[in-house]
Design goal:
The protein is built from three helices and 32 strands. By secondary structure, the chain is mainly beta. The strands form four sheets. It has a 16-stranded parallel beta sheet that branches. Strands 6-7-8-11-14-17-20-22-25-28-31 form an eleven-stranded mixed beta sheet, covered by helices on one side.
């Protein structure tokens, strides 16, 4: 029996064509030998040279994404001494200890490239640094060492830090708002190959992260370490990542953090992992599809959890025997594993600052709408 060349070729290629990466699976990258097409309902999206991922999208089965070449723009940095600073008042624990004002009252600059962002973020003095469009880190994985008294804010809803992040070391008064940060993922889901975080803070204070998206990093999306204090993380989406938000790395019990209206979507662990926090206030967060655990009160942490919505979360609430955990008003939908019972006496957040709880039933819609960059925050 004889076969046409076309038929033979089709038969040889059939197994490869049938192999499909699942939703959120890898579908490409340097050295990748697995499937390069995505299951129906997802598309293969380029992240970096080492990794492409199947993400929700229409168009049926799609094959490996190709890299989009971005043409570098010339610097258009401008400076002024007043006006248009896209500033807002910090709340939660970041409002204490003199408040968190970032670069308010200082020089306002607009940057559209990595070199200028680095120049102003590392400079002494107060700066409001407006990020225009997508800025690609060079080299990949670099964390800009931000100096005291800085606001870094995206213009409109398209400000992005691609392939890099920020390092805060023994600094104070930092605001990072209205940005998409991430895409340093190198194919190591466990995050042990590189220490490339979206934000890494060591022994720093008065930090406010607001209306941002963090995704696909090469270690932690945010690491708050070594007695970092007076922290608020609000209206932030963490998605498509394993090690999300870790707080601790210290035997001291001094850190105070507020985390509210945050969206933990398609994540693994550290949602957050709160280790040895003096006070950890979690409210109105939405966790959807977390495969390891949800809010975790570790070590000697004192944690209060209010009106959070847990959907398809494994081990929604966890607590060490040495920790305090008091949870109220939460909703659990299609969750698995265990949910820790209340234990100990939690602190009263309203003794430190004012806040308003949204109804738990409304949390998913509110958070999905608000936990992202918004054009109204910094129009220009």
């Amino acid at each position: 029996m004889t076969y046409s060349k076309k038929l033979v070729a089709a038969l040889l290629l059939a197994p490869a064509a049938l192999a499909q990466a699942p939703l959120y699976g890898q579908c490409g990258g340097q050295g990748w030998t697995g499937p390069t097409s995505c299951a129906s309902g997802s598309v293969c999206v380029y992240s970096n040279d080492w990794y492409s991922q199947c993400l929700p999208g229409s168009g049926g089965v799609t094959t490996a994404a190709t890299k989009t070449t971005t043409t570098s723009k010339a610097a258009t940095t401008t400076a002024s001494s007043s006006g248009g600073n896209c500033q807002a008042a910090a709340h939660g624990f970041a409002s204490l200890n003199g408040g968190t004002t970032g670069g308010n009252g200082g020089t306002v600059v607009v940057v559209n490239n990595w070199a200028d962002l680095k120049k102003y973020a590392t400079s002494s003095g107060k700066y409001v640094i407006k990020v225009s469009g997508k800025i690609v880190a060079s080299p990949t994985g670099e964390e800009i060492k931000v100096a005291n008294d800085k606001t870094i804010v995206g213009i409109g809803s398209t400000g992005e830090i691609y392939g890099g992040g920020f390092g805060l070391s023994n600094v104070k008064n930092i605001i990072i708002r209205n940005l998409k940060i991430g895409n340093t993922y190198d194919g190591d889901w466990e995050g042990k190959t590189h220490d490339w975080d979206g934000i890494q803070s060591d022994t720093s204070s008065n930090i406010w992260v607001d209306h941002c998206i963090f995704e696909r990093g090469a270690d932690g999306l945010i690491d708050l370490r070594l007695d970092s204090n007076y922290i608020t993380i609000s209206h932030v989406t963490f998605r498509n990542h394993n090690k999300v938000l870790g707080i601790g790395w210290t035997d001291n019990v001094v850190t105070q953090a507020t985390i509210h209206h945050c969206y933990f979507q398609n994540v693994g662990q550290r949602n957050p992992s709160a280790d040895n926090l003096k006070y950890a206030h979690m409210y109105n967060n939405y966790l959807n599809n977390a495969t390891s655990y949800g809010h975790y009160s570790r070590g000697k942490t004192n944690m209060r959890v209010e009106n959070c919505y847990f959907e398809k979360v494994r081990n929604p609430l966890q607590r060490d025997d040495t920790a305090v955990l008091v949870a109220s008003g939460n909703t659990y939908v299609s969750c698995t594993g265990s949910t820790a019972a209340n234990s100990g006496t939690a602190f009263n957040p309203s003794s430190f600052y004012s806040y308003t709880l949204d109804s738990t039933a409304n949390v998913p819609n509110i958070v999905k709408s608000e936990a992202q960059p918004k054009a109204s925050i910094c129009p220009s």
